[in-house]
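Reopening this one. Same input as before:
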Amino acid sequence: MSATEFLEICVAVSLALLVLSFALITIRIVRGPTFADRVLALDMLVSVGIGFIAVIGVKTGFYLYIDIAIALGLVGFLATVAFARFVMHCGDVLGGESAMCYGSDSEKQR
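Same output, byte for byte:
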């Protein structure tokens, strides 16, 4: 077995595992049950997207994809921090309303 054949097998196996994880993460996003679970699943979805981009970069030999994956990782990190701050200040959105998140009663009546 040559190195090229081994690389092709590794790429195929990694793409199959990434597709499986993408499907499981999608199920978690749909089923929830809490907002925090969905945020965590979206963070994992970004990680799987980074994996897809990196594997495709290795498969095609166009390594600029790795730079794109790094940029996606930074954006995903910032989105996760923003969601975490929202959950920390507002609690679970499905569990109850908070005056700090939705404004005062006078603002709700408008």
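So the earlier flakiness isn't reproducible anymore. For the record, The chain has one domain: 3-109.
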